[in-house]
Amino acid sequence: xxIADDIDKLLDILPDFIKNALDVHPKKRFLIxxxxxxxxxxxxxxxxxPVYLSTINISWIHLDFCxxxxxxxxxxxxxxxxxxxxxxxxxxxxxxxxxxxxxxxGRAIFGTINVVRDLLYAGDSILLLGKPGVGKTTxxxxxxxxxxxxxxKRVVIIDTSNEIAGDGDIPHPAIGRARRMQVATPELQHKVxxxxxxxxxxxxxxxxEIGTELEALAARTIAERGVQLVGTAHGNYLHSVIxxxxxxxxxxxxxxxxxxxxEAKRRGSQKxxxxxxxxxxxxxxxEIHERSSWVIHEKVDQTVDKILxxxxxxxxxxxxxxxxxxxxxxxxxxxxxxxxxxxxxxSSSASVNQSNLxxxxxxxxxxxxxLPTKTKILNVSKFTNLINKSSSYxxxxxxxxGMNIRQVEQIISDLNLSIVLTRDLxxxxxxxxxxxxxxxxxxxxxxxxxxxxVIYTIHSHNRNNIIRALNQILNT
Length: 476
Prior knowledge:
This is AAA+ ATPase domain-containing protein. It comes from Herposiphonia versicolor. By secondary structure, this protein is an alpha/beta fold. It is built from 14 helices and 26 strands. The protein has a 9-stranded mixed β-sheet with strand order 11-10-12-13-9-16-17-18-19, sandwiched between helices. Helix 6 (189-200) packs parallel to helix 7. The longest helix is centred in the N-terminal third of the chain and has 15 residues, at 136-150. The radius of gyration is 27 Å and the shape is globular.
């Protein structure tokens, strides 16, 4: 990969004792950012962690030295260096005086998106997800160049903080032939997005850091006009964006739907469920967990539907290696945060929802007090067995809590069930207990959450409830 970072231009605005320390640092080319806080030692941050650059504490003189060499800060406390991709952010006190600087190194890395080049040629809108600093902006900058130069499309960048195309009126060469529209303040980004479509006839719109409801609405409007979108948003995983009320519209949004009795029976679900409201603005989503490992969702609409249903989701992981080779791995994952609870049917109902069984995963995130007083059921869905099994069949290990273990042992023996009871919680694959006891044992719920142990609860320990619970365990 070819890397252009103009790092010397960033170092030139620093005091000599910081600049000299970085000039001789062996990992200078991997520098992420420099932090200068009043009264503290200067700090350089690398992928492996932070490093102090000097024993001298930062003073007002050092901050003033840097501030005089950079352009004026905008309303979002950001600035840059002319003709570079570096970003400089300030921290101010209550009086408006700058007491800290974060100088982030901006790089143009050519070849970084070879792992998803095929997705660009498909012409679908692409959403990049990941935590700050993982490389979303670097990737979107390279995507811009590919679309504008290699594919010869009309590309317009909505550059709110001048981070994609650099500071100054002349955009950085890293974006190729793409045009850049600057945004005066972050609050106006959604208006500039619409203006770009109406005035400049783009085939592709590039948006960095979609973060407000108005920007999400503008993205949907652009998608409905047939313009390809490439954007980024903060969120480590696709399901975290679905849970974000501000950004979920990018994926089609979610709504409560009440089913009729017959339809609920046919689906094997509760009457109240969550469903996707409309088509997503983005057809492809990319989760960037590490710089060299990306998870691809090529059909966002189908993936969102499966997540809302608690079904298995096929994950495609693409990794690129130091020898420029690319590997693709497939995996399955399951989500049940979105499965809803509802009131149980009457005893005359033939529905399977008569069961008092409750299946709870990630129990520490479940607030029992939110349940209506008459609620007896948490919607039962098929969970994927998250325990890795060897090629030979491994009997599931069950931990009993708040119940007579002899009674459960006798039922397993009578029905000849393939379940092993264990008295060691840490060795268990499943937990079966009385709901009221599980509810008040926070430590057990925490352990289960950390070790991915699925908790099954029943209202009372009569024989029928226990049998239903054991059968459910074997059917997962």
